[in-house]
Amino acid sequence: MGALAIREKQLLYPASRVRVLPPGPVGVVFQSGGTFMYWLQQAAVRGLGFSYAVSSGNELDLDLADFINFLIDDENTKVITCMVEGVRRPEVFMAVAEKALRRESRSSWSSRAQRKGQGCREKPYGSAGWKRSRVRCAMRQDRHNPLPVA
User: Fold this and answer.
1) Which parts of the chain are beta strand (E)?
2) Which domain holds residue 58?
3) Which domain CATH number covers 9?
4) For the segment 14-38, what is each residue's pLDDT rounded down to a tens digit?
5) In a domain, 99, yes or no
6) What is the tens place of the pLDDT at every residue in 54-92?
7) Can you give the pLDDT at residue 147?
8) Are strands 2-5 and 50-55 parallel, antiparallel or unpaired?
9) How many other C-beta atoms lie within 10 A of the C-beta of residue 126?
10) 39, 54, 88: which is the final residue of a domain?
11) Cα torsion at 119, 120, 121, 122 (round to 10°)?
12) Number of other CB atoms surrounding residue 80 within 10 Å
């Protein structure tokens, strides 16, 4: 578990390999420390640069929603990448996800998905239910026939 502020060169992570990560527009939040380090290294090899990177671990205090909310407000972060194993506060996470969708400059796909999903108020089910219901609603508005989701 740890945090990296790449542009500021504040590296609070117990591995020296993070010292060479390039600065850039990608903010990262992973709940798995092992996957976190491997992914950062491979993404850097492929040319990605990072603003902030957080391995949130078991989230005793701050959680996924808190970190994403911070990245949304950071002007230098243009892309937010997450590896999520579970969402502790689904309602707060949903509010943060809606905030991210309102930031049209972040991603043309995200803003397109938001416009298609407007008016969709289906109740979520399960940890990934919010996404499934929004996708299904957007697909109905697009006149696609989604496959059943178990």
Assistant:
1) 2-5, 10-12, 23-30, 50-55, 79-83
2) 2-88
3) 3.40.50.261
4) 888 878 899 999 999 999 888 898 9
5) no
6) 999 888 899 999 999 999 999 999 999 999 988 999 999
7) 41
8) antiparallel
9) 11
10) 88
11) 160
12) 23
Longest dimension (CA), the chain: 51
Q: How far apart are CA 32 and CA 27, in angstroms?
A: 15
User: Which strand (E) or helix (H) includes residue 95?
Assistant: helix 90-102
Q: Locate 145 and state its tokens.
A: 């026939």
Q: Do the domain assignments include residue 101?
A: no
Domain count, the chain: 2
Question: Looking at the domain assignment, is residue 30 inside a domain?
Answer: yes
Whether 98 is in a domain gets the answer no
Is 83 strand, coil or helix? strand
Residues 44/28, Cβ–Cβ less than 8 Å: no
